[in-house]
Amino acid sequence: MYQVRFYDGTEGLISKAETHHVQPAKFEKIVDFILNLEQRWIGETIIARDDRSGIYKLGMTPFLRGPGLLYEISPLNYFVKRRASDHFKA
What we know:
The protein is an alpha+beta fold. The chain has one helix at 24-39; strands at residues 2-5, 11-14, 45-49, 56-64, 70-75, 81-84, 88-89.
């Protein structure tokens, strides 16, 4: 098992089969690229799943709530809640 640091700063243990070695400078370039992509979601109209109903609705991402793709989402009814990015599309 290898101790690794992910682009969002979290760390974890993963097997050798799950790794891809990159030089530190290249890793930093990749991280910067991903973080810039994350910033592009801010202020965008999105479709997000309402956890209570399971229905996908229009919303907006007013800001990113820290690293790791956790955004604040404002649905059309203006109720603000936190949502991980695995349930929205641009």
